[in-house]
Design goal:
Elements (H helix, E strand, L loop, with lengths): L1 H7 L2 H22 L2 H11 L4 H25 L1 H8 L6 H16 L1 H9 L3 H25 L3 H25 L8 H11 L2 H23 L1 H12 L2 H21 L5 H31 L2 E2 L2 E2 L12 H23 L6 H23 L1 H26 L6 H18 L9
Antiparallel strand pairs: 1-2
Helix pairs in contact: 2-6, 2-11, 2-12, 3-4, 3-7, 3-10, 3-13, 4-6, 4-7, 4-10, 5-6, 6-9, 8-9, 11-12, 11-16, 11-17, 13-14, 13-15, 14-15, 14-18, 15-17, 16-17
Length: 419
């Protein structure tokens, strides 16, 4: 959708869209409150009472979703000025509340499909949601020129369709009833994820709000579009994350589990290194690709392409963090996550405050790399203490050197060295 947005929305309009979705990203932490991770852990490992875990988790999140949605809807006039200092966001906040509520209702049903390995059904529902939102965006944003309102309405339609189907698939499993003890177990595991998840979202989203205050909505639009050009890396990391958690929980009972986890990290770095090179070296050709009377990205956004390798590096570091989470889950050390992620979030805020006034958008991109580096390094120190894994350091170093060398050659000035 970003190529569509960059051709039909001004940089300021796209900046506003980015701000409201940054708000949705932050609020998702409150609406989900770590329940997905907690549910998966107990659903996969408690073979005897798994249906009661499902019933308890789903009923609990239904109640909280309605409560949080109503609260955000009512407080929209107070929330809107916090999101943006340059426009009226009341209606956007109210529509965002509906998006948040519907997405929260889908958390447990989607997690159940992941836990049971039902990848075809999971992917089919996700794809149906995406196609409905795509069609809605083309109709409401391109043809009816509804801007951010059309984007949010399309999102509500897609999430609503998924919610309807998932509810039908899940309700028949709720006969086990609601258990107060299971709820306590779930919340004990889940609640430490609130500050941890909030910190990760702050790392990813806070730069938009700070750029808007320091540089204006136009800069937010260009910066966000450039960040979206790194979506190939983020897509791979997120797909890996969805499969990784059920995999390492089940594999942890094997004798050679740690050696398997080490090998997974090596292959992960090989693939992400390839994605990094493919996107970095061809990004200028991609954004200028002519499609009819349009280019892949609108020309007003081309100035942000130099930021893309920096974003890709940040997402690789985020992927390393996701990989390193295995030890924390297995040893039930989630209580330390707020410390790890909090340090990274503080790094992000501090680096953005220092670097944006000096380096503009490049400063914000650099702040992301620094924050994700702190996140990955801190978690590595933690897991090394509680669940040491024999990572293949010689291979990992060779991968980094090879990718770095090819990238450097690719960015040398053309001429005698064009080959």
């Amino acid at each position: 959708l970003v190529p569509i947005y960059t051709n039909v929305l001004s940089t300021a309009e796209y900046g506003n869209v980015t701000l409201i979705y940054a708000f949705i990203g932050l609020m998702n932490v409150l609406f989900a409150y770590g329940m997905e991770s907690a549910f998966l852990r107990y659903y996969l490992l408690d073979k005897v009472r798994k249906m009661q875990v499902l019933s308890t988790g789903y009923i609990t999140i239904i109640i909280t979703s309605f409560g949080f949605t109503g609260l955000v809807f009512l407080l929209a006039p107070q929330i809107a000025p916090v999101i943006s200092s340059s426009g009226s966001f009341n209606e956007y906040v109210q529509l965002a509340a509906l998006v948040l509520g519907l997405d929260a209702l889908n958390i447990i049903p989607f997690a159940r499909l992941r836990g049971e390995g039902r990848a075809t059904l999971f992917a089919s529902l996700k794809l149906s949601k995406v196609l409905l939102e795509l069609g809605g965006n083309i109709w409401l944003v391109v043809y009816l020129d509804m801007g951010a309102r059309g984007i949010l309405i399309s999102n509500i339609a897609g999430s609503g369709l998924a919610c309807l189907i998932l509810s039908i698939l899940t309700i028949r499993h709720l006969a086990a009833g609601w258990s107060g003890q299971h709820m306590k177990d779930l919340l004990k595991f889940a609640l430490p994820y609130i500050p941890a998840a909030a910190s990760v979202i702050i790392i990813e989203m806070i730069d938009r709000f700070m750029i808007e205050r320091m540089m204006g909505a136009d800069s937010v639009g260009v910066y966000s579009a450039a960040r979206k050009l790194g979506v190939g890396m983020l897509l791979f990391v997120n797909v890996f994350r969805l499969a990784w958690q059920p995999f390492f929980l089940e594999t942890s009972e094997q004798q050679d589990a740690r050696a398997i986890f080490a090998r997974v990290l090596t292959y992960f770095l090989v693939i992400t290194g390839g994605v990094f090179l493919a996107i970095s070296l061809y990004i200028d050709d991609l954004v200028r690709l002519q499609i009819g009377s349009y280019t892949f990205f609108g020309s007003a956004y081309w100035t942000g392409t130099n930021l893309v390798p920096v974003f890709l590096a940040a997402y690789i570091l985020y992927g390393l963090y996701v990989n390193l989470m295995a030890g924390v889950y297995i040893e039930k050390k989630t209580i330390y996550l707020p410390i790890v992620t909090g340090a990274a979030a503080l790094t992000s805020v501090g680096a953005n405050m220092m670097l944006i006034p000096r380096m503009g958008m490049y400063g914000a991109a650099t702040a992301s790399v620094l924050a994700y580096a702190v996140l990955a390094c801190s978690l590595y120190i933690l897991t090394r203490r509680y669940y040491p894994i024999p990572y293949e350091w010689s291979r990992l170093i060779r991968i980094v050197l090879i990718v770095g060398g090819i990238f450097t050659l690719g960015y040398l000035p053309e001429g005698d060295m064009a080959w």
